[in-house]
Structures are given as structure tokens and as C-alpha cells.
Amino acid sequence: MLEFAERGNLATFIERRASDGAFLNQHTIMAKFGDIADGLIYLHFRNVIHRDLKPANVLICVDNRLKLADFGMSKIMHDDDLNRTIVGTPLYMAPEVARGKDYDYKSDVWALGIIFYELCMLEHPFIERFVQGRKKKFCVPQIAYNQRGFSPEMQILCDMMIQVDPKKRWTLENILKQQHVQQLLDRIK
To answer: Which GO MF terms are attached to this record (predicted)?
Structure first.
């Protein structure tokens, strides 16, 4: 079924909020995170890796619900496949993808973590990640949760997704099972 995203995409939404200096509250951030996570869980349970998750590929419907879009780089995974193809948008590419190493569903989790950070801070954590074709060092960004009125669990959630070492990065399924993540998501219901 084809749907029309009446409210544009998440990239434009974040840009507008940033230009206005209008930070989002924790409730709104978690609602948007929940929508994107639901879409990714749907894909991952069907053995599909998105490989180009970014705010421009997240559409906003009239009811403010978010939907994933642009599956042109998606891939169906088969029995513990690992990929090495470097695809996606560099600013949202997991370190292992950018380095040409094996990657899996956790590369989508990295991109979700970057989007989560952007929703919290209204800026990209690694804006200068690539300079003249060279990869800069990756580090885990810190959310100024105490300055924005967020709970400390917001930083913990970000830390679970934006881990440079994919072995330390949590799967989306495990993240969503965590009690503090469930509590954050329950607060939006």
C-alpha cells in the first residue's frame, strides 16, 4: 500500500527545530525513537537490513507517526550473513561499514543511535567525520541530558546504540527488552 507522508521527513523536521532552537522534550524523542525502532524490528525479524537509515529516509505521516522509507540499499540476510559492501550515507554509516569490515543488523542500530542523538541535541555528533576522504576517529558522543531535562537513561540508551565496537553494540531486540528502555517507552503511552 502506498502512503503519502504529509509532513515530510525527519531530516527537515530536525533542521527546522535546530534553526528555531526548539529542542524536543523526552516524551517526543521517545515516541519518535519507538516508531523507528518498530520499523527496524519489523525489518530485522524478516531478515532485512536497511543499510541507509537516516532522517531523510524516515517519513512523517499526518498523525505524526514515523515510517521508514527508501529500501533501495536494503538487503535480505541469509543465516548469519555478514556484509562487506560499503553502502549508505557516510554520516550514518557504522564504523565497521566505513572501514570495509563485516557488518550485520547492528549497523542499522548505529544509524538509529545517530538519529536518536540528533533528536536529543538537534545536531549530528560526527559532522566532521570524513575530512578529505579520510575517516576520522569514532567516539561515543555524550547527550547533554542534564541540560535538556532528560533522564540519565537517555544517555544509557544512546550508549547502547553508538558503540564503536560492533561486538559491544547491542542488538535492537536486546535494547528494547531493557527495563529502563521499557520505562522510557511506557511513559509515552
So the answer is: ATP binding; protein serine/threonine kinase activity
Name the average pLDDT for the chain.
83
Q: Which residue has the higher pLDDT, 139 or 150?
A: 150
What does residue 80 show for φ and ψ, rounded to 5 degrees? 60, 35
Residues 134-164, buried b or exposed e (16+ Cβ, 10 A)? eeeebeebebebeebebbebbbebbbbbbbe
Model confidence, pTM: 0.86
3-state secondary structure 45-90: HCCEECCCCCHHHEEECCCCCEEECCCCCCEECCCCCCECCCCCCH
Is residue 20 part of the annotated active site? The answer reads: no
11 within 8 A of 37, measured Cβ to Cβ? no
The reported pLDDT for the residue numbered 16 is 96
The one catalytic residue among 52, 63, 81, 104: 52
C-alpha cell at 48: 532485512
